[in-house]
Amino acid sequence: MNGGEEGQRLFVGGSWVEPDGGHYAVPDPATEERVGLAPEASRDQVDAACAAAREAFGPWSRTAPGERAAVLARAADIVRAHLVPYAELAQAETGATTATARGMQVGVAAARFRRYARVESAEWAIPPQVNEAGPFGRAAVMGALAVRQPVGVVTCVTSYNNPWANAAGKVAPALAMGNTVVVKPAPQDPLSVYRMAEALEAAGVPPGVVNVVSGRSAAVGEAAVSSPDVDMVSFTGSTAVGRRIAEVCGRDMKRQLMELGGKGAALVFDDADLASAVAGIGTTFSFYSGQICTAPTRVLAQRGVYGRLVEQLAAYAGRLKVGDPRAADTAVGPVISAQHRDRVEAYVETGRKEGAVVVAGGERPPYEKGFYVAPALLADCAADMKVVREEIFGPVVCVLPFDDEEEGIALAGDSDYGLIDYVWSGDVARAFRVARRLRAGGVGVNTVGRNMEAPFGGFRLSGVGRDAGSHALHAYSEVQSLVWPG
Q: Where is each Aldehyde dehydrogenase domain found (predicted)?
């Protein structure tokens, strides 16, 4: 089950099965040493996983919500009990710092299973309606009830930056609503998701309700999305891949939940608390090494504060220790792969060629092993630069000046994305006024913190739909109306 040096097995229909495509090595981004051997599923095995989920759907959807909640509660306890070893694996796969692996990866996953281990009402009354007599019968008072029903089989395609929290954020609410799932983890770090499957199996999830199939080949994900047994696809990842998935879903009218790219704007006004703004924006440099779609990577600074903000952000970046994520004082670990490191470095060089000033970082730290990038701050940027317009997904922040509120709002909106933006201002009324005009799924007002019950999702190319809190239960359900004469 665990695989070890023999290699991880797939989880299909309640059984741990050898992959038809053999195994591939998962490297540690910090050391480049092998973490383990991940399974490469064949298309037939993906089809078998989808078929198993289809077969299990009927019984699981009819299971009492309280019983489903009890399974999730037990899974939360199991994950919490194994927090340290699970976090060590997540750290080895992703390069996350110890605090991030424990608190924000495994810890958040346990919290998400616990969150959906409580039963919420799935039905609500609709006010009665008086119908006049007509061709359909005599006059009558018509009652109605709206009922949330599970969608069916959900394919969950998860992201590499947080294999625990991202997968749990899909699987937990989907199961709570009575759906069954096929999880296709990111190829870079799938081993953690198999540990999650083990926890769910130990918690008593019936065979076929949860299936996990992985692989480096694009055919694995394509099969999991296109299977006729699948009713919905929940995807977190790049907008480019999301578009391809959406095309497949559109052909068969499959439901979608898409959490895609981001290029968050942070508007910092002259009257802002600079220390708060710098600390919030600075998380882009360190948190997941900038590999996070919600990061405030476009900093729009009003001219009266522009110079001081650039200076303080540069100092902040310079204080961050880049290196071994297992060291207690490390703030910035590696990015996920050598290819991604090269991509981030190429963007910094492109910004320099476009006329941006690299105020801090951007160089490759002098380590023999590991995929490290020093946090980069690019100042004097312009709205048409590639580094400003495209998602880099690394520890890179671009700063642009603006003169007044209207120009700041216009610059923030000049983007293909719209996931989360941010506003810093000492004038709370202005901060909320500006926030309401930003075309983004969420806006942080004087904070980069999240309320985990608030709906999460984006405008424009940042995605389709909303999850988190009760909104995730809505996302993984269909609404059925029941009508009767009163």
A: 16-481
Looking at the DSSP assignment, which residues form a beta bridge with residue 480?
147
Asked if residues 200 and 210 have their Cβ atoms less than 8 Å apart, the reply is yes
b/e 456-482 (16+ beta carbons within 10 angstroms → b): bbbbbbbbbbbbbbebbbbbbbeeeee
CB 344 within 8 A of CB 335: yes
Phi-psi region at 457: left, alpha or beta (left = phi > 0; alpha = psi -120 to 50): left
Q: What is the pLDDT of residues 296-318, one digit of tens each?
A: 999 999 999 999 999 999 999 99
Of the listed 259, 381, 391, 398, which one is catalytic? 259
50, 156, 249, 293: the active-site residue:
293
Would the pLDDT of 5 be above 80? no
The rounded distance, in Å, linking the Cα atoms of 91 and 302 is 38
The domain spans of the chain are: 4-260+462-485, 265-454
N residues, the chain: 486
> What are the tokens at 333?
């670990």
Q: What are the DSSP E strand ranges found in 132-193?
A: 140-150, 153-157, 180-184
d(CA 187, CA 158): 10
Pick the CATH number of 4-260+462-485 from 3.40.605.10, 3.30.505.50, 1.10.10.10, 3.30.420.40: 3.40.605.10
**8 Å CB contact between 259 and 475:** no
Closest among 235, 226, 233 to 255, alpha carbons compared: 233
Q: 253 burial class (0-12, 13-18, 19+ CB within 10 angstroms)?
A: exposed
Secondary structure (3-state) at 314 = helix
Angle, nearest 10°, between helix axes 191-202 and 163-176?
40
- H or E segment at 26? strand 23-27
Query: Is the Cβ–Cβ distance between 467 and 173 less than 8 Å?
Result: yes
pLDDT above 70 covers a percentage of the chain that reads 99
Q: Is 396 helix (H, G, I), strand (E, B) or coil?
A: strand
Is 201 designated active site? no
**pLDDT tens across 377-418, in order?**
999 999 999 999 999 999 999 999 999 999 999 999 999 999
Task: Provide Rg for the chain, Cα atoms.
Answer: 24
d(CA 267, CA 402) in angstroms, rounded, equals 9
CB count within 10 Å of CB 257 equals: 23
Question: d(Cα 53, Cα 209) in Å, to the nearest integer?
Answer: 6
* CATH code for residues 265-454: 3.40.309.10
- Is position 398 annotated as part of the catalytic site? no
What whole-number distance in Å separates Cα of residue 471 and Cα of residue 475? 6
Distance CA 244, CA 437 (A): 30
